[in-house]
Amino acid sequence: MHVHFLQHVPFEGAGSIAAWVERRRARTTWTRMYEGEKFPALDKVDLLILLGGPMGVNDSEKFPWLTAEKEYIRDAIVWGGRVLGICLGAQLIASALGARVYRSRTKEIGWYLVEGIPAPGLSFPFPPSFPAFHWHGETFDLPPGALHLARSAECHQQAFQVGRNVLGLQFHLEATPESVQSLIDNCGDDLKGSAQSANELCEIEPSRYAFINAIMDRVLDYMVAIVD
């Protein structure tokens, strides 16, 4: 199995997904967008994972590679590839499929409850209610034909699915203590006015990370269920 990551900044990596990939003994490759690296051929990738980043999907004037990235994502989806988007990655999927991405009413940074929404068919089933880690100030409309899978009090669009092969997650199920610390170190200014301080974010018990990482594992297992 070949897993390919699109990375937008050096300090937002795979988090707990790295352990899942290692257990699966999957081949991993990366396109580091900030270094202008090329995309792989779609027929060489079994699972495409779009990671987070502090930029917005509409910032193509400052980050010209966003335009090419959205085209590649759209091509991957049309081709039938497995595509998982996390935070910015979910917003990129939404934008690539023609949905609007815009600033949220409030920034959602820290640990907040997410409510799973039952959806028909073979869609991914989230728990009815669970705490997840968030770090975003933008949201999006659902892409045409998407199933709405999760919401929170502050952000209605938290997860969606398009067909059997595309999932977008606004929250970070892959978060680890190390990845959260990296966000604090590199994006600490975002915490100004936030309801949760850096100290509070660093005091979260390991069991909470284990819980969300287990959901992330289930998401990944779901995504590759008919790839292996």
> Could you name the ranges where pLDDT drops below 50 across 5 or more consecutive residues?
none
Query: Number of helical runs?
Result: 6
Kindly report the CATH topology.
Answer: Rossmann fold
The proportion of residues in beta strands is: 25-35%
Give a count of the beta strands, DSSP E runs of length 2 or more.
Answer: 9
CATH superfamily: Class I glutamine amidotransferase (GATase) domain
User: What Rg is obtained from the alpha carbons, in whole angstroms?
Assistant: 16 Å
* Class from helix and strand fractions: alpha/beta
Intertermini distance: 7 Å
Q: At the first level of CATH, what is the class?
A: Alpha Beta
> Which architecture does the CATH hierarchy give at level 2?
3-Layer(aba) Sandwich
Q: Order of strands side by side in the largest beta sheet?
A: 2-1-3-4-9-8-7-5-6
The total domain count is: 1
Kindly report the average pLDDT value.
Answer: 95
Characterize the biggest β-sheet. 9 strands, mixed
What is the H/E order? EHEEHEHEEEEEHHH
Helix content: 25-40%
Q: What is the global morphology?
A: globular
